[in-house]
Amino acid sequence: MSKIEIYLLLFTDSFVSSLAINTSKEIMVYTIKAFNSANREITIIVVTVASLVANFANYFFGKVLYNIFDRTGIEQQRLTRNNRLLKLAKYNRIFLLLSIIPFFGKFVPVIAGFSKFPMISTILICSGLKFGYYIYLMIM
């Protein structure tokens, strides 16, 4: 396999395993680390970009779920719910820190999209934590 094929396979494996609809783990990252078959820096960059794209997809999946389930049509319930969410808004970033957990972290952007957390901070925090996780994984 050429290096380009390895990195494309790594991107695809990381992207698909980071989607919320999938329950598999990232096998290629561990394989590349075990066999030392690719450059660590490029591996970290490719896996982080795949995680970033998957976080966008998971966030928009959460927004779609919100639009599907929010068909009540009663404005008062929406205002009451928004007031409760505004009181909990200070805990958004603490909740987003749960994305560091390998399996359950892929569901955090979905819940954030469903709960209408700010998109930019959600994507940056989740992807930044995954970046740190990958650096730790590749060094250790």
TrEMBL record:
Key words of the record: Membrane, Transmembrane, Transmembrane helix
Transmembrane stretches, start-end: 42-61, 94-114, 120-139
Superkingdom of origin organism: Bacteria
Protein name: DedA family protein
